Amino acid sequence: MLPARVRNAPQQCRRHRVKEALVRLAAFFQRKTNDDTASQSGRDREDSGRAFRSRARSPSIAVAEEYELARRKGTAEAFELFIARHGDDPMAKRACVELKRLTR
What we know:
Oligomer: single chain
Strand content: under 5%
Number of strands: 0
Number of domains: 2
Shape: elongated
Helix content: over 70%
Radius of gyration: 27 Å
Distance between the termini: 79 Å
């Protein structure tokens, strides 16, 4: 019988080729990303040339999406959770109205 090192050689070689291919693919996408950032305007990139991460979403958009999810779920628990999280937001008034409608 052949030693394990010799028997596993084709698998190790295949793994090595796959790993090399993944490294090359990652390098390609990194190079493509760097090329894209170089073509952006100066306000969208740092002095080092790396792109900034995308800006955070507006909190009002996130609150509106969460309200919409609570409305779609349509349960008192969902509206109570929304009100607990965003009690000072104007959308909380809508959630209170929906909650009262559900509990009647």
